[in-house]
Amino acid sequence: MLFRPLTAAFAVAAICTTTAAAPTATPPTEAQVRELVTKAATSKTCEDCVAALRVSREFARDSVTAAIELSKSMCPNITKSPADLCNGNIDKQMPVFIESVFKADFDRGDDKAICHYVTDNCPPPPVTAGTLRFPRPKPKVLTVPAHSGKLINVIHLSDWHVDELYEPGTEAQCDRNTCCRTFPTTNTSAPPIRAASTWGDYHCDTPVKLTRDLMQFIKKEISDIDFGILTGDIPPHDTWLETKETVVPIEKHSYETIASFLGDGVNVYPTIGNHEVAPANLYPTEKSGGSAQWLYNSLSSQWSPWLTPSARLQVRNNHGAYSTSPHRGFRIISLNTNFCLDDNYYLFSDLSDTDPNHELRWLISELQHAEDHNERVWIMGHGAPYQTSCLDNWSDLYYQVVLRYSPHVIAEQFFGHSHVDDFAIYYEHGNEAGVKNARTAVGMGWTGPSVTPYKNLNPGFRMYKIDTSSWNVFESVTYIANLDQAAQWDAKSETPNWHVEYSAREAYSPYVPLSADEPLSAAWWHNVTEAFENDPGNPTGPFQEYWKRHSKQSTAYATCLANTTCPQQMICALRSATGVDACVAAENGFKKRGDGGNGEAVEMVQETRPWSMKMCGNFW
Ligand SMILES: [Zn+2]
């Protein structure tokens, strides 16, 4: 998941605001910035947000240092976060935010766009990406390979978020992104409100002990794993503390742990999350200045047990993305989707660049090669293009790519980042209303459930059964442990109760029949969402069953009651493979997809929360 700091960001942003317009003769005063930022944080209107951003940019133009200090002074109050967390996040995030805001073109509407991406207080900017041109037109006759009937096992791990500094017995209910540690503000003389168990907590990241127990379970219980996929985010959510020096060893230890339990014969195909880099989320573009080459070099080396020399060279030279063929006729394309995430402030430096680092152009060339050579392709990434946090232009272009190469080339797509168990269906006519049905469903995006219980979720992972000719999913089995029992495991010296949560085929085929020789296709999933519409409040009906699976049966997660708009919004989101789709009402009347990620259910998204959390520390 990501990391959303931003209230103070505004102060900073505000601070950081201005670029294209010439600086005014007299810079705004600190009092003026405070007043406008406070007003924006209170009213949450687009107009006030833009005013605050603009005055902040003018203020920052006069002195970046003063802007950062002002941001720090406002952050604890506005975000209700501890000062050390505010200061750490602002020191790490704000310089890039300010530099990017300096370069942004407010006359073009970047001010409103930034307010949208950072605070949700402005409506989404219009999609301006236009229509893609492909190397060759889509073939008139699409040949999808027949299923061979031979199935292999593939495991999917996502959002590992291990916390090597996790301390059992510490406070699990704190005012930070991640708890279960001793922080400078921890009152060690008082007993914790809720003491961290040795196995984890709903407000904390994953203890090392839980990751090892999970891998032990996989080693013991899941036989014949052909390969694994790992959809990003190894480090914990302590974004205010992270540096290159802290994240690299955590990543190294985790990849080594996974490799040692799975053994030499099982390759894992990883992808880059927003937390792999430090500071979190900040992946420079070729145009923005800055460099994450240190990370690409590090991952290229750390992934050496699993990737070919050619794939490792791509990781190093292609901003972490690579394309590789684990089996004849089958290709995995691993994207660095941080070039679409709105937490990557480098992207604000040029919002007119709809394909930063030409990643989509590279993806198209790989897919064209696959089409020309009759290969089946899986696309994987961390943040999904269908999640709200993906910039709308990128999300729209990606959808066009999916439609051009589906269903004959792209077999499946896998992502992570939201931590919940989720999916999204791609349709032939994209967003067009009224034509989303089983016949027009052409592609699936699978969101892998997180290993971390953060936030309010049970830890889990996935195993798929995959056909070795079509490379389609024939079965999806999700495993979990019920973390609300952690105190009992400790008291009785037991280990977590890892078990099958559900098989998608067994869970939904009673509602939408599926014969043994048919995959869990987009058309089938569309019909499952139609079954969800039927009596969504029935506690034993398919929608409420789905809702429990969304949080991996967490007792700490929100409800999605039938007498609210929640079920309808969630079903809309499942049929919306682009962030542009409007399913969930945001605070100011406009809508967004609302993927239910970030530990928040729909109704939680709508409730009041501190303004502009991005800057100050609500980082997924
Ligand atoms: Zn993430």
Automatic annotation (TrEMBL):
GO cellular component: extracellular space; membrane
Gene3D superfamilies documented for this protein: 3.60.21.10
Domain Calcineurin-like phosphoesterase positions: 153-420
Required cofactor(s): Zn(2+)
Coiled-coil parts of chain: none
UniProt GO BP: sphingomyelin catabolic process
Cofactor note: Binds 2 Zn(2+) ions per subunit.
Keyword Transcription attached: no
Keywords linked to the UniProt accession: Disulfide bond, Glycoprotein, Glycosidase, Hydrolase, Metal-binding, Signal, Zinc
Disulfide bond annotation, renumbered to this chain: C46-C122, C75-C86, C174-C179, C180-C204, C340-C390
The keyword Glycoprotein appears for this protein: yes
Residues annotated to bind Zn(2+) 1: D159, H161, D233, H419
GO MF terms held by the record: hydrolase activity, acting on glycosyl bonds; metal ion binding; sphingomyelin phosphodiesterase activity
Signal peptide: 1-21
Binding site residues for Zn(2+) 2: D233, N274, H382, H417
Function noted in UniProt: Converts sphingomyelin to ceramide.
Family, per entry: Belongs to the acid sphingomyelinase family.
Protein name: Sphingomyelin phosphodiesterase
UniProt source species: Mortierella hygrophila
